[in-house]
Design a protein that fits this description.
Layout lengths: L9 H13 L10 H13 L5 E4 L6 E7 L7 E6 L18 E3 L2 E3 L3 H13 L1 H6 L6 E6 L9 H10 L6 E4 L7 E5 L1 E10 L14 H21 L13 E9 L9 E10 L4 H16 L1 H7 L4 E10 L2 E2 L5 H10 L4 E4 L5 H8 L3 E3 L14 E3 H18 L5
Helix pairs in contact: 1-3, 3-11, 5-10
Length: 397
């Protein structure tokens, strides 16, 4: 149960809430329910009740909270609660305890992206005091780090509502720059099933690793072709779609023909559905070129493919109303696109909510040991939310 007595100053409220959030170990393979319960208790003290959307395991939940009138369209502030692992990283302190030094707040998730969530929660009292004529929704999700998993059930519920939000601000770390686009991603795992034999009679076996190697070479060939086809979209630092093999496992011993090998590969595509189109084409090639050769040697051999990650690209028009509003609230005129993925594209594709990415902190700090966010960045974000509150408190037309 959180202490309902919070500091009166905005910066101290943000620090207090961020310390609470960082204190929950919400690495993606663990439950986030204690953190969600903590937020719910804080909101209950303020007279608010959110809508929990629990996953099928009962161990994870998203939270949808509406401040203001529910019968009018408003805006969404969205953040995820999960963080990446700390194992193998050289932290100088407990990663789940907030430490402040020289204007920087250290701890796992401070930048990605509990800092943004803390700011939004810290601003709820001001939202309540403002007598909003348009609602502000908080969308708090889980398992973003493993493929934007937890936001999907929540967005499917939002899509059923009679009133659709006008737009969403996804608070990933952009140093409060307005991001209008990011690449999509499709990840695939290929499992090659060969035939094991003693290596002294290798020709009688079917070498799963060797067939997997042919797939890897083909992936590399197609990656080079994508790199040669550069997009005219100069807003991306890597102005073309990318494709690579990332994980390979296979073999048991030097003297055994390997009967299994798994290959994980991904495409990050600029086009809305390009990443899936690229990987689908690779699967079709392997089905036509590699699998028949394997089965010709032994009918039980072959390849299984499974999707391991999928989200579309984001491509919000530069002149869209949500972009214009984001620039006004942020007090800047520029916009950009990024290579990393976010939940923003799912707000658009699942719930038809125009979205941009904008949040405190630098992506260079995300996932690193001694991750930190500058207090100045959190205060800038609070200023953004303050302007959003003022915008939503205007008399409705």
């Amino acid at each position: 149960m959180p202490n309902p007595i919070f500091p009166s100053s905005r910066p101290d409220r943000i620090r207090h809430l961020l310390a609470d959030l960082v204190g929950f170990d919400t690495i993606s393979d663990r439950t986030n329910l204690p953190l969600i319960a903590h937020i719910e208790s804080y909101l209950a003290f303020l007279g608010l009740k959110g809508e929990r959307i629990v996953d099928e395991t009962g161990e994870k939940a998203a939270l949808w909270v509406t401040i203001g009138p529910e019968d009018r369209p408003g805006f969404v502030l969205s953040g995820h609660t999960d963080v990446v692992p700390v194992v193998g990283q050289d932290w100088s302190h407990d990663p789940f305890k907030l430490i402040e030094r020289d204007g920087k707040l250290f701890g796992r998730g401070t930048t990605d992206m509990k800092g943004f969530v803390a700011v939004c929660l810290a601003m709820v009292p001001e939202m309540l005091e403002a007598k909003l004529t348009m609602p502000i929704h908080l969308a708090i999700s889980y398992d973003e780090e493993i493929g934007c998993v937890g936001v999907r059930p929540m967005l499917r519920e939002v899509a059923k509502k009679k009133i659709r939000p006008l737009g969403a601000f996804i608070g990933e770390p952009t140093q409060m720059q307005v991001i209008i686009g990011h690449k999509g991603k499709h990840g695939v795992r290929a499992t090659f099933h060969g035939l094991a034999r003693h290596s002294s009679i290798a020709p009688e076996g079917v070498n799963a690793i060797e067939y997997a190697a042919e797939l890897i070479v083909e992936i590399r060939r197609r990656a080079e072709k994508l790199a040669a086809t550069r997009s005219s979209d100069s807003l991306y630092d890597v102005p073309h779609s990318t494709l690579l093999t990332s994980i390979v496992h296979g073999g048991a011993a030097l003297n055994i023909v390997p009967d299994t090998c798994t290959v994980d590969f991904e495409c990050r595509g600029i086009g809305i559905t390009e990443s899936r189109e690229v990987t689908d084409a690779i699967v079709a090639w392997a089905r036509a070129e590699l699998e028949p050769a394997m089965k010709a040697r032994n009918p039980a051999c072959g390849i299984d493919f499974e999707e391991i990650l999928d989200y579309p690209a984001l491509d919000t028009a530069a002149d869209a109303a949500i972009v214009t509003l984001a620039k006004s609230l942020a007090g800047r005129n520029d916009h950009a696109k990024v290579a990393f993925g976010t939940e923003a594209s799912l707000f658009t594709s699942i719930a038809d909510i125009p979205s941009v990415v904008i949040g405190p902190g630098a992506i260079a700090q995300a996932h690193t040991p001694d991750e930190f966010v500058e207090m100045a960045e959190l205060e800038k974000c609070a200023g953004f939310v303050e302007k959003l509150i003022a915008h939503c408190a205007k008399t409705a037309a």
